[in-house]
Amino acid sequence: MSRRPGRPSRPWETFAVVIVKPLSWLLVKKDWRRGELLPRTGGIIIATNHLSWADPVLLSHFLYNNGRWPTILAKAALFRVPLLKVAVRALQAIPVSRGTSEAARSLEISEQRLRAGGAILFYPEGTVTRDPALWPMVGKTGVARLALETGTPVIPVAHWGAHELLPYGQKKPRLLPRKTFSVRVGPPVDLSKYEGQPLRGSVLREATADIMAAITVQLAEIRGEKAPETPYDPAGR
Q: Which residues belong to any copy of the Phospholipid/glycerol acyltransferase domain (predicted)?
């Protein structure tokens, strides 16, 4: 039987699972809800907020336990680090070359994986949030474009707690007291009103805003707080 698209070879998958799952269970307590909303088959875009360098690992554990192997987009620089480059390539990560002529290549590879039935974990913000209160920022339009071009469902997923384990910019985790990693999954984002429209600026920005709003709704539930009326826009600061 052939492997699902985007999945590494079985030895590498086993290697990752053997390391990530015990580490994740050890580092954080789990508050995972509505994982059943993740489609178990077919191409899906998992759109989520970004708080810490630790959240891709913790989210991968959640997604794996709910039936999906996530393809992660990683900085191209990681593919040049000795030893690490072997692992990220073997685990089928997609390199992202920000601010270069190769930047569009990551979306091309993502489209291929989605059409083949893969699950891709996207951070629409493009980086860890710069919002002072850690709410999702204004997103970039790449995810909306990909979803509208392929007809792939966008599943909004919010998480909270990874930043308490490993604050952004720090290399040393805060292990004690043991943190809680909370995850909420929402229903697919309704992008039907954009179908058939030209994929230009205003359409992509509005679709992106809908995706970010759906993520923010899930995060507000986790935090038990009201989100800002207007998302933080680093370009306007």
A: 44-162
Q: Give the global pTM.
A: 0.92
- Cα–Cα distance between 64 and 3 in angstroms, integer? 15
Q: How would DSSP label each residue in the chain?
A: -PPPTT---HHHHHHHHHHHHHHHHHHEEEEEE-GGGS-SSS-EEEEE----TTHHHHHHHHHHHTT-PEEEEEEGGGGGSTTHHHHHHHTT-EEE-TTSTTHHHHHHHHHHHHHTT-EEEE-TTSSS---TT---BPPPTHHHHHHHHHT--EEEEEEESHHHHS-TT-SS---SSPEEEEEEE-PPP--GGGTTS--SHHHHHHHHHHHHHHHHHHHHHHHTSPPPSS-B-GGG-
Q: How far is CA 11 from CA 7, 8, 74, 82, 181, in A?
A: 11, 8, 21, 20, 28
pLDDT for 181-215, tens place per residue?
999 999 999 999 999 999 989 999 999 999 999 99
pLDDT digits (tens, 9 = 90+) for 62-83: 999 999 999 988 877 777 777 7
Strands 94-96 and 119-122: unpaired
Task: Round the average pLDDT of the chain to a whole number and report it.
Answer: 91
